[in-house]
């Protein structure tokens, strides 16, 4: 009998197991005279250690797959997500809005475009299939061209799969056999039997509170290999299928994000039964996304369980939006009670998409409809546009040309790339602050030849005022504006605009400035600063807020009127729906070669991509 004190259970590595077996056998009277280092005995010890090591590794991996935090196999994650009531996001089809013109030849009363009418479009040399999401009909007038507006085209291939129900055979699963399915496109129809062709349409169950024994609903669950299966109710929660029913499952196989960006569409065959249909694109295809990643499932499944199909907290809204609209890059949600000014009974939502600077009206309508399903009480969701803050940077990069084989222009290009990459990874999301020290390190890390840098930052916001109309405008920088003492000037300026002065004379080349909390309009004439309006608004230096009162420009230079401030601190902290975005057009970079400092000679070049700025030798500021 083995003594428990001679058995070690903690060591599971091969060498440690082998040593433990050897030491254990040496303590047994039966093996006192055996040479455990002999070839035959050594082989037996190797086999025992190997077998034990393999079993322990296998059991450890099985244990890992039992928990969502440690599971690696996608099948395990899909199964574990079911326990939390979470359906991992499938691929999503991109969609486009178009207008279709059809010219009939037989004087019909109306023209009908059937659901799943096929169109095609080419993206980067690859042809993708698009289909109509539903049927569309328009009244015809003889053989005149019929225009059908706002037709939605969805990318993908529609397929149908049929099963014959047999409730006594529990091995039958109503499985969708294809991968790449957009779960939003799944439709389920039950036909009574092969002989009885009457059909009932079933809808996806989304809320158990509204389901009873007679509800025609189906449930969708993840299956192995990124597929899904359809399940019916049990005559308590949803109507159960009957033996002999024909289960007809329709779905769309999509290419996900690859279908985004389609702009030109053409019919594959006839449209509404007529050839020669023309398609005019209203909006290019957007909204396509790929399957949720393993890390995404691991992160979202437990948080979906927290939401419990209701929108109460800010995080609830965020989870629902990111689940229903995968194209979102960042979301900010805050209650109306924290708005400025407070607006009770509302929740404000700001969304930054993965592509572009703002979401479209159609996307807002889609998300609003989704949120209305989960709202509690009479809370009204409202969208706020992203409020971008653009740092305008003058950067001096000191480098030693002896430490690199790159030319100055290539090094400068690398620095620019480092800055834009920093903006992409460390900024461009709600609540992400601009830390100048981190940006400075990122510039230094661009190349070992860079020995330091200096960054001077101003902040810019773009305004598109209504021309020839007196309106009030509030520009919120939400960062303190530099104002060290009474009478200090020069913290605020703008790009040029044209405005009527007090004598109704049009004055071009005007800008704004500030003095003691008052915004003025001025222009330069013959080198002399002339005030056009002594009081055009106010500025709150602490809050970083500028108010323009009855501002009435008739024109402005460029695509927008830019307001530029000198902040009190170089770090920039956005508030609520604000996002900090570094644009290459707002960078002025000077490369300073310090290799010749010892000789008293320095070489520097300054390059700027800012089309609306000028650089002077007396100061390092722009504008």
How would the blueprint of this fold be written?
Layout: H1 14-26, H2 39-64, H3 74-83, E1 95-102, E2 110-113, E3 118-123, E4 126-132, E5 136-139, E6 146-155, E7 157-164, E8 174-176, E9 181-191, E10 199-204, E11 217-222, E12 228-232, E13 246-253, E14 266-267, E15 278-286, H4 294-307, H5 314-324, E16 328-335, E17 346-353, H6 361-374, E18 380-383, E19 387-399, H7 408-426, H8 436-444, E20 450-463, E21 471-476, E22 492-494, E23 497-500, E24 506-515, E25 518-525, E26 528-540, E27 545-551, E28 553-556, E29 561-565, E30 578-580, E31 587-593, E32 603-608
Parallel strand pairs: 10-11, 17-18, 19-30, 19-31
Antiparallel strand pairs: 1-6, 1-15, 2-5, 3-4, 3-14, 4-6, 7-13, 8-12, 9-10, 9-13, 11-12, 16-17, 19-20, 20-29, 21-27, 22-29, 23-24, 23-28, 24-25, 25-26, 26-27, 31-32
Describe what this molecule looks like in 3D.
This protein has helices at 14-26, 39-64, 74-83, 294-307, 314-324, 361-374, 408-426, 436-444, and strands at residues 95-102, 110-113, 118-123, 126-132, 136-139, 146-155, 157-164, 174-176, 181-191, 199-204, 217-222, 228-232, 246-253, 266-267, 278-286, 328-335, 346-353, 380-383, 387-399, 450-463, 471-476, 492-494, 497-500, 506-515, 518-525, 528-540, 545-551, 553-556, 561-565, 578-580, 587-593, 603-608. Helix 1 packs across helix 2 (39-64), helix 3 runs parallel beside helix 4 (294-307) and helix 4 (294-307) crosses helix 5. The relative contact order is 0.09. A 7-stranded mixed β-sheet has the order 7-13-9-10-11-12-8. Helices cover 19% and strands 35% of the residues.
